[in-house]
Design a protein that fits this description.
Helix content: 10-25%
Bound molecules: N-trimethyllysine, 2-oxoglutaric acid
Number of strands: 19
Function: Converts trimethyllysine (TML) into hydroxytrimethyllysine (HTML).
Order of helices and strands: EEEHEEEHEHHEHEEEEEHHEEHEEEEH
Keywords: Carnitine biosynthesis, Dioxygenase, Iron, Metal-binding, Oxidoreductase
Protein name: trimethyllysine dioxygenase
Family: Belongs to the gamma-BBH/TMLD family.
Largest sheet: 7 strands, mixed
Number of domains: 2
Catalytic activity: N(6),N(6),N(6)-trimethyl-L-lysine + 2-oxoglutarate + O2 = (3S)-3-hydroxy-N(6),N(6),N(6)-trimethyl-L-lysine + succinate + CO2
CATH topology of the largest domain: Double-stranded beta-helix
CATH architecture of the largest domain: 4-Layer Sandwich
Oligomer: single chain
Amino acid sequence: MRAGYVSLPKSIGSATRSTPFSRTLFRTSVLPQASATKLARLPTSAAPPESKALPRSTSQSLAPVVSDDLPVISTDGRKVAIGWDTRTWSRFHNVWLRDHCRCPQCFHPITKQRLVNTFEIPSDIAPSEVESTAEGLKVSWPSSQPHTSLYPWSWLQHNSYDPALRQRETQLDKILWSSKIQASPPTVTYEEAMAEDDRGLHKWLSHVDHFGMCFISGVPATPEATEELSQRIGFIRETQYGKFWDFTSDLAKGDTAYTTLALGAHTDNTYFTDPCGLQLFHLLSHTEGSGGSTLLVDGFYVASILKELHPDAYNVLARTPVPAHAAGETSALYQPFPSSGYPVLSHDPVTGELIQVRWNNDDRSVMNNLNSHQVEEWYNAIRIWHKLLTSADSEYWVQLGPGTAVIVDNHRILHGRSAFTGKRRMCGAYIGVDEYRSKLAVLREKFSSDNEVADRSVWSPAL
Ligand SMILES: C[N+](C)(C)CCCC[C@H](N)C(=O)O
Ligand SMILES: O=C(O)CCC(=O)C(=O)O
């Protein structure tokens, strides 16, 4: 059971009949088989906080059948209320319950797609019977729409919306870091990452999820091995720079990455509507010269400092769309859609948490969406942002070399490099954000402690 749930006893799944729970109220109220309209009556002490006195049934009033360890349930014709304990009730609309039936007729057991026709569900649908069972809430729908649905208690808790009981997916597992991470940067070995049992891959991507980056040591210094390593995560995202890139300072592509110039801390693809999720780099060789060290900055760490010390500047970066372009290839002219672009700092519309940093001052287009009084506050904000990004506290400089690759979350980590001389050969790849998150989700399913079954349940919290 994931943290943040109402702590139902483990036994709810297998309904032992012996363990009374202090402060919990587990009774069941079963609608009479015969009547489609009688409503359960609950002892007033157990009535859901805001429920009105339920209308008396036309026959005898129902005394709840008290049974061990099952939630109390009640219906009022529009909703079903579930009493998890004396203080915690959830209410589910009938139409919501019918729409979310996941029996094989309503929800494809293999494709996990809805089969029930949402739009044939009467807006005033009401159950003919509700029952609290060891397996979950059992709902019998009226003879006009004969059907029986069963909803596991844990699924109902996870998806309770009135009130919301689960902890929103939060970034609590993110570990923000400064330049001090150089003492012990997250690393996996190539053997771990390539191991067929996927345990090393799970470790690798868990590091990326927590730190936003991870080194991979012991990588054969070839583009082939590096490409194979990249593909362990998912298919490579092809762009105007090609699929798997193997590049040097020859302007083979119209971008300063293909020069010897220094590149300040940036995220890639600000000119795409959907910037790539991960970016892997592996320095294959550097001869007859020096420089070309790699810069990594945790954009979430720097944003947390900005928010704390300069909240006004943070808000400017959170609300000001920034246009960008990639126009160095005659065959391509990229701008995000809409072309006004996206803010430097993007937030989850539900939790309000920072979810993406987009920053590349070199690729930024004309700021032509500011009105007069916004111009100076914009420049003041990016000056503060730049100052924090380039502070010794934020900058983690590392010299890559053949055999050690690094992968970064391009939605969080900024990267760059110092100028260099000589012949420098870098290879790597982009992985889409959805491919990365999907692989991580599959690995979490595979290695999660309570995943007793191999196949993906229709009740998976991810669906
Ligand atoms: C393909 N490779 C990674 C070598 C180059 C990427 C181009 C970098 C571009 N200025 C951006 O910020 O997205
Ligand atoms: O050459 C490097 O080390 C990094 C180049 C870069 O920043 C990029 O390709 O996005």
